[in-house]
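Q: What structure does this chain adopt?
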Amino acid sequence: MAGISRKYRMLRRSHAMWVSRRVWQPRLVFWAGAISIGLISVLFALLADRAQALFHVVTGNDGGWRFYLPLVVTPLGFVLCAWLAHSFFPGSQGSGIPQAIAARHLREEDDRSRILSLRLVVGKIALTIVGLACGASIGREGPTVQVGASVMLQAARWGGMAQARGLILAGSAAGIAAAFNTPLAGIVFAIEEMGRSYESRTNGLVLTAVILAGLASLGLLGNYTYFGVAKDTVAFATDWPLVLACGIIGGGVGALFSLLALKIMRRIRRWNALQPLPRALAVAAVCGLAVAVIGVASGGLTFGTGYAQARGAIEGAPLPAFFFVEKFAAGLLSMVSGIPGGLFAPSLAVGAGLGSTLGLVFGTATGTAALLGMAGYFAGVVQAPMTAFVIILEMTGNHDNVIALMCAAVLGYGTARLVSNEPLYHALSRVFIAEAIRRRRAEPGDTVKA
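A:
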């Protein structure tokens, strides 16, 4: 009888726990947050595509006078984005991934809310769309990470959840998964790039967020691969020189991008310190004009994300031999200008262009070379080889190339470490952490927790 009574009491406690509002409210809010990330990501993607289409319609491609409109529109758009970001949405500048990484290291709620909030969700999406509408070489995928982390952190506030670090990680992973329709890449990105380690306590949060955000995205757009399906397959017997070249050269060029971006942005921050807003606007104007000149000189190929050019290369259409140099410069200028916008899609376009050029040199199929170039270059930029090959594998749908992509990504990562041992996103995240520390030190009686 005692055993039956004890079992009955346990069942009653279990039943009370599952019907308790304290148990279900956080879960419902978390699930709603993850689904919201998927819906917002789809809306963001559709608006970004419309913005790029609008830019190309306005500027035209017939060689008439409208083709030179970017020389005016692009610098003005950069200045507008920089002014709005500085005056109304501070913390929205750049990719958004460094902000999410920094927020995981900050313990004070006030510090986190300065770089992750619903206000910044609106600003990040709006200003990225404006940037694309004026021809900036930026992407929406990095901003989606900051959007996802902000939505999930707000869900934590509403749901009374205490796992802020894990929820930021989950929101970031859900953002990547929904932006590219790459659930595995979202999980790998969370482990390798956001956390730089595996945390068993948060794996359930990450998996649930990725699944729910992915379901929301699939419900609206259906199942698709970002770059279509790659038909070419790497043959190691004949293509191994291309794998080595794409990995080593791609990683070196990617590391050069990262190194230049960090050095230029440090100098700009020091120069801007005396007159932050006027000098920030001057930098944005100069960078915008340079992006416009490069875009006009390239026949309009370097404007926008570079998605169309990368997809064309994967499908077998060779890109101009120096496209990757022009896109590299346009992406670098867009990044250091201080306007909101990511570098995922532009980096993949640079990698595809580099691979296409190397394919011409080695006499191999353009599609194969573009894939390998993307893996090597992207791994060199972000120094996250697993994320690089998984995301490209899922975006192209050809699993026959998994070993070749892994080799190119690892070679790219290894080469990048020789050139620069400072991962780009983590180096940029320290800027936001340092700002929080300075702000706390300026407040009497406060102690820094980071």
